[in-house]
Every structure is written in structure tokens, then in C-alpha cells.
Amino acid sequence: MKVVNTPPIAGQRPGTSGLRKKVTVFQQPHYLENFVQAIFNAVPALKGGTLVLGGDGRFYNRVAVQIILKMAAAHGVAQVILGRGGILSTPAASSVIRKYAATGGIILSASHNPGGADGDFGIKYNTDNGGPAAEKITEAIYQHTTSISQYQISEAADLDLDVLGRFSVAGMAVEIIDPVADYAALMQDLFDFDAIRTWFAAGNRMQFDAMSAVAGPYAVEIIEGLLGAPRGTVVNGLPLEDFGGHHPDPNPAHATELIAAMSAANAPDFGAASDGDADRNMVLGRNFVVTPSDSLAVLAANATLVPGYRQGLAGVARSMPTSAAVDAVAKALGIACYETPTGWKFFGNLLDAGKVTLCGEESYGTGSDHVREKDGVWAVLFWLNLLAVTGKSVEEIITAHWARFGRHIYSRHDFEEIASDAAENLMAALRARLPELAGQSLGGQVVSRADDFAYDDPVDGSHSAGQGVRIIFAGGDRIIYRLSGTGTAGATLRVYLEKYQEDAAGHGVETQAALADLITVSRELAQIQTFTGMVQPTVVT
Ligand code: VG1
Ligand code: CO
């Protein structure tokens, strides 16, 4: 074991989901080691405990795994459970932490951010419930990075990561597990695999685009293997260190290959994609895109059709910018609906306390109490289960849902790589105007409420302020503004737009056209062009 002197490195505060930086930043001397040491300092229980370790396989994953193994050994961790090849999808890591009652886990991923030598890398700590560490812990980790003076690392040789079995690194046990097996078993407990097998056997077709990311092995084994879908159902199924140069983000703007396949003449019945670490999902029907907010609402409304949720839902939760589609379902079901800040870590307490069963975010994230992360493959299997037992198409399910609950027309406009100070100034100017907005008319609609969202966790009472500016109109339409906490270059302004359309005659409208007035108001109110110089968003989903 050696002790290495190190200076604190600025800027290691975890964002919405862990610490994300360019690979080149992580490659700087001591950068990763300082952060990992801060985790061990902040979580003393890891000494003598079990740590789960794995990542999405992106560039630098294997290097980071070797470093973390040696540091874990130096810190007296009793056992590391490691995915073969250093691979574990984020939801699989969460399930493994829970199944083996581990002390915690370190997940290596920058999720939907691009990878490769010039791309992004990331690291986050998950606690013993399998979920992302709460703000209290991420903040403690950050504080340690600001005062660190040395780290400990063993001088053991590198471990061969590609062989299953039990090994030792400087006396610490390392169990290398199949990254898919435990997760696949959990999925079989939740979903009606027989019904889905029958659906495929009847000739229904699907395309799952793993976007050359970590979902590939999970989707191939579960969908083509256990569920008998034809070979080739999963495309881009081989995880690549640079995701083939693509943005592994499952939305219409980035999953262009899937969008094209689903709008072709011979399109499959069902399309799906997931992100870099397989916790996000996008689902589509033939020539029909499902928004994540609608998907959450549909899963909630139909949950009892699925074995794992047959007993009904305790409650549901959504992040604040996510549309109120699920609120309408909760109301009809007579269950609670919680509104939380952006980021999965805010769902953890609600799930642990049994207050909610399903939760989701507008950013292509859906999940349940089966793990403590959002879960892309789980959401896709949930949809497959619904398609199989209802015999309906995706479009039929969604349009029937709208007919019953009304449609929450929804879109997110992202303005990426804005200079950080311009973005901060824009938000500050917006916040300064909030007190005067209520009662005013904007674009012909009266503002009923204008505030900066704050959240009081109903379980532990923790308070999180400054979570996004909300402009809520009298009719329920909303414009939300917040800055991204996952980017690595400049700042990203996210503008979320929502309009409720009750009348079925208006449900077929094109989304951007239906939101045109709100879009204009959103640009003018925040003076987006004045502050950023940008006339149009870089990504619209
Ligand atoms: C984004 C999404 C948020 C999500 C987070 C992590 O955060 O908006 O809903 O929880 O990414 O997802 P932000 O701060 O950039 O808006 V993942 O799949 O990147 O871990
Ligand atoms: Co992700």
C-alpha cells in the first residue's frame, strides 16, 4: 500500500448524477484518485464492507476500474462485486447492490453524454438501497475533495477483468460476475415472459437500438434470448468505447437510425432505444413517437396488467419539469403523486418509504421500486408486456389514453454550450422578474404562479431550493427553465413546454405547432437571444 500526496482539485462537485467531465480531465494526475478517496472518506462503512463496481464500458472505464480496485483494497474493503469486463448497466448495478446487500456501489458512466478519448467520463456513488447517494452524501464527498491531502492505493498488479470467478487484489476479495444474469432474473419476476414470447412468436416485430452502448448485452440476452425475438431485433448491440461516435441519447434528435426504421414502409410494430448506461428509454410505435411523460402515465394507468404490479401502485412520482400526464392518472386511481426536483436521487426516499411504486422524468427516464435507478430495459419490457396482453398497437394505447385523460402536449427545447456566465445571467434576470409575474398576461394567457421550485422531502425533511423557474398559467400550461447539471462544456439551458388539451379533436396536432404560442413567450420572457445570441435551440425533443 502506498500513500500519495495530492493537492485538492477544484470543480469536483457532483451534478445531477455524479461527477461528469471530459475524459482528458479525468486523465489528469490524481483526478480520479482524489474523488475516489473522497468517497472512502465520506463513507467510512465501506471499510470491511462490500462494494459493487461497474460502468457503461466507455473509454477509460477499464483504467478507472483498475484504479478503484487498488484503492478499495488499500481502504480495507472486504469484497468488490465487479461486472465482467468492468461492465454493469446503471440499473443492473442498482439491482446487484440490493440483491447482495452491498454497502454501496461505484458506477462509472457519463450516461447519455458522448464517449471516446475526446468524450465524457463520469463516476457516482450509490448507497446501500441501490440508489444514487442523496445530496447530503454527494455534498460530503465534495467537501472532502476540497480538503484532501493524500490518497491510499495498493501496489497490486492489474486484475484480468474478463474472467468470471473469485480473485484477490492485495488480499481483498473480488467476485467477477456475469453483468446480465441477476438483472435478467429480476425482469422475469416482474413481467409475463410467456405472453411476450407468444407475441413475438405470432410474428410481431420489434427494433431495439442499443446505440452501441451498455444495453446491448442485456437486450440481446433478454429480448432475443429469453423472449425468442428473432436475431437482429437488437441493433447496435455491441458496446463500443466511443458508442460508434454517436450521442448515446435515446430521443428523436439522436436516435435517428431508429426513427428512420420506425417510419419506413416495413416498420416494426415496436421500437425502443436506451442510453449510454441503459437507464433511459425511448419507445415508439410504427411512425409514432411516445413522449416520456406520456409513457410514465400509460405505465401507471395499466400497471395492474403486469404481474409485478398486479397489486396496484402505492403512489407515483415525477420530476417537476415532467408533464402532469401522470398526475391525471394518479387522481383517477386515487393514489398520491409527488413532484420532485430533477434527478433520480430525489425518488430514493419515496421509494424506500413505500410511498411510490412508479416514477419518471421527462428526460426518457422511467422506473419503479424494483431498483433505485431509472431503468431503460425494464420500461421496454413493461411496454412489451402491455402490447402482448392488450393486443393493441402503441398508437392505439396512447390515443386511448389521451381520450380518457386528455393530452398533455409536451416538448423540451435545449440551448447547449452557452457561455456559463450568460446562462447564469439569464436565469438571474428571470428570477428577478418572478415576483411581478403572477396576474400578468403573457401571450394572451394569465400567469397564475411564477416561482423557483423548492422541494421539501416528505421522508427526511431535507430542503432543496433553486430547482427551476416555473411559469404556470391559469389553464395549467407551463413553461419551466433550468440549467443542466450533467453537461461538461459551458452551460445548457433547458426550456420545458407543456399545454393541456382535453378535447380529443385536438389530440392529433403536431406538437411544435400546438406549442407555438408558448414557445414564443418562453423565448421573449427569458430574453434567450439577448443573453445567448441563439435564435433556435440546438436540440428539440
Ligand atoms: C439530465 C436530465 C435528468 C436526468 C439526468 C441524469 O439532467 O434532465 O432528468 O435525471 O440527466 O440522467 P440535467 O441536469 O442535465 O437536466 V442520465 O441517464 O444522464 O444519468
Ligand atoms: Co443514463
UniProtKB/TrEMBL annotation:
Record-linked SUPFAM superfamilies? Phosphoglucomutase, C-terminal domain, Phosphoglucomutase, first 3 domains
Q: Under which main EC class is this enzyme filed? A: isomerase
Which InterPro entries does its entry note? A-D-PHexomutase_a/b/a-I, A-D-PHexomutase_a/b/a-I/II/III, A-D-PHexomutase_a/b/a-II, A-D-PHexomutase_a/b/a-III, A-D-PHexomutase_C_sf, A-D-PHexomutase_CS, Alpha-D-phosphohexomutase_SF, PGM
Note whether Metal-binding occurs among the keywords. Answer: yes
Q: Which Pfam families match?
A: PGM1_C_vert_fung (PF24947), PGM_PMM_I (PF02878), PGM_PMM_II (PF02879), PGM_PMM_III (PF02880)
Any Gene Ontology CC annotation: cytosol
Kindly list the biological process annotations in GO that this record carries: glucose metabolic process
* Gene3D superfamilies (UniProt xref): Alpha-D-Glucose-1,6-Bisphosphate, subunit A, domain 3, Alpha-D-phosphohexomutase, C-terminal domain
Which PANTHER family does the protein's record reference?
Answer: PHOSPHOGLUCOMUTASE (PTHR22573:SF2), PHOSPHOHEXOMUTASE FAMILY MEMBER (PTHR22573)
Its family remark reads: Belongs to the phosphohexose mutase family.
Q: What is this protein called?
A: phosphoglucomutase (alpha-D-glucose-1,6-bisphosphate-dependent)
Name of the encoding gene = pgm
